[in-house]
Request: fold
Amino acid sequence: SKAKLFDEKQKVKVSFKDVAGLVGAKEEVQEIVDFLKSPEKYTNLGGKIPKGALLVGPPGTGKTLLAKAVAGEAGVPFFSLSGSDFVEMFVGVGASRVRDLFKQAAQKSPSIIFIDEIDAIGRARGKNNMTGGNDERENTLNQLLTEMDGFGTDVNVIVIAATNRADVLDKALMRAGRFDRQIYVDLPDLNERSAIFNVHLKPLKLGNDVKIDFLAQQTPGFSGADIANLCNEAALMAARKGKESIENEDFLDSVDRIVGGLEKKNKIISVKE
Ligand code: ATP
Reply:
């Protein structure tokens, strides 16, 4: 099978209402929606539209979802790729793949390019020499910088990247005119967890004893992805028991399973260290 370089969606159905919580982050990306929808409003006064924004935060907090929602709200095509796939799958051709991606996105301008796990490409250069250097990755990174610098004022492509390791990124990425805006996407607090449950419980058949605020209290430290996973686990557990609806105990049992899984993962990591 042919490896896919990037995913291209002409019509994105995700909108801001699918993204629960993240009020501050949504406010910040609203500006990107405006840039994509009415660039003249900004360029008429001589301003230059920013080319990149970096979403920074722990895994599963909705960075991909938020980037998609920007495309959905602006009604523009969404090109996405993951930095780790990129480095693993396209040995020797990373730079030319970046060129292709930007070319296609420019042809469909206005559009969004989303790069998940940008740290896989964008680690500081010259600091990876334990493995004998990594010219391939550096070439890919250099091409990315070249493409972002090369956008003319006639194209309106905004590059959104996501990472949970902003500390390891090459500072060149953050320079003016590149990813000069950083937007923090944090783990949800109690109220935000309620809002996320609200989204993910909606399609489910719930028993009368299920209370959103109680579930939010039982899930400190959960990301949005953990909550989505919990809701699905609870539904499967209730189905396995042949129930007609999902009850509070199904959620609590699933919380135990997920927390147990997280603890195991942490243990394995701490043994390695
Ligand atoms: P990673 O860093 O692991 O790529 P991410 O921050 O990009 O994670 P997403 O892929 O956007 O996280 O989140 C995974 C899923 O978790 C989403 O598709 C959604 O179902 C759920 N989710 C995460 N955050 C939220 C949120 N704020 N509101 C609603 N659903 C959320």
Summary: The pocket of adenosine-5'-triphosphate is lined by residues 19-22, 59-65, 116, 162, 164, 196, 199, 224-225, 228 (CB under 6 Å). Residues 248-272 form the longest helix (25 residues).
